[in-house]
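Researcher: Here's my situation. A collaborator sent me these components and asked whether they could plausibly form a single complex. I don't have experimental data yet, so a predicted model of the whole assembly would be a useful starting point for our discussion.
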Amino acid sequence: MANYPDDLQYTKDHEWIRITGDSGRVGITFYAQDSLGDVVYVDLPKIGAMVKANEPFGSVESVKAVSELFSPVSGEVIEVNAKLADAPELVNTSPYDDGWMIVIKLSNLSETDALLSAAEYEDFINEK
Amino acid sequence: MPVEYGGLVAEHLAVRTAAGIFDVSHMGEILVRGRDALKFIQRVTCNDAARLTDGQAQYSALLTERGTFVDDILVHRFAEDAYFLCVNAANADKDAAWLARHAAGFDVEVCDVSADYAQLAVQGPRAAAIVQSLAAEDLAGLGYYRFRRDAVLAGVPTLVARTGYTGEDGFELYCAPDDAERLWTALAEAGHPTPCGLGARNTLRLEAKLALYGHEIDDAVTPLEAGLGWICKLDKGDFVGRDALLRQKAAGLTRKLVGFEVEDRVPIRDGYPLVADGREIGRVTSGSPSPFLKKNIGLAYLPIDKTAVGTRVLAVARGREVPCRIVPTPFYARPK
């Protein structure tokens, strides 16, 4: 299903990661942005920050609530989507492309074994 | 009542520009009847119920002896010997017990009739046309804070009041719980008001600076501090809490409720601290992005010297200090 592209891996906290070589681009899923509603603010780490798998790296806010963002993997933040500062709605309109959040240089490639495939993630959210 | 049906922002904007419908059946209703009903209402509420005529409603409050809120309520006058109170759901039991305790010596009967009523609110510029289309009698011509006790909407006996909690024109409709679904369906078919949840109800009332019990008001603050001095008729005769309000008025307020705008994209939410000169000076009672005004707004109690319009304070958003400016309220008032 187009809502959950096959070339991404997913977490049960509703983040996605697109691994290329030893780095991965991270954002939140269609399901996550749809549950949040209109995103009005995204708080992201600075380039150079270290993040840990399954731990918060930032937050995303809609009118109704604040949600923590959890990192799918451990490593160093090497890119941050600066566009989200002025256009947080990109998280809603383009969760897998223009609405990406950070790029992480992975410190432990084996952590990706714990991530879900698109099919596994879809099964997970359908059970909810 | 869900937080949202089709999305909080869309629901909010529908009420500002067209119409929304809310199932607010959780609200409590209390009936006060008896020969001393007016005398009793005058004793236990702070507004002047003697000014009401049959078919008229009034925003008021039950206060403690300290002048703080037991609850904020709507008083509807059925007759000089019968008043219908709409109270907050979470406070209905407390209010009924509090009223019963104060009823000693009055010829009145206090009945919690919450289980007998469902309540639907139809709010927004199109509300009058929608409600009118279901009635034979003139309801669109009903004045603000007037009600019709024995109206019939689409065959459903309904108390129709021109009141609301959104800052828009609209109606609150009280009917028997068994009729509520039929009334909702008739309203939906008549004019397709957007179903709205608790989320939009909260952001709409915040833009209009309407107080929410447990946030702006509770048993630790007085109406004078909450900017609700206009519902305290201190010259109407004695009522519970009056002495405390007179003392507070004479001494002068040390803090009051103000509105602020956030000068940043970070939403400032309920419970966030406000600081000045390195010290905490208050907490946000309600704060949210404003869907209609498209900026972040909030309410807080601040020391009097920080309440002038234009004053700058800092809010602490999860560790980060964010500049805010005191602004005039309400944030939103509907065009007259």
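Model: Some features of this prediction you could bring to your collaborator: The interface with chain B takes residues 37-38, 40-41, 43, 59, 61-64, 66, 85, 88 of chain A (CB under 8 Å). Residues 9-109 of chain A form a domain with the OB fold (Dihydrolipoamide Acetyltransferase, E2P) fold (CATH 2.40.50.100).
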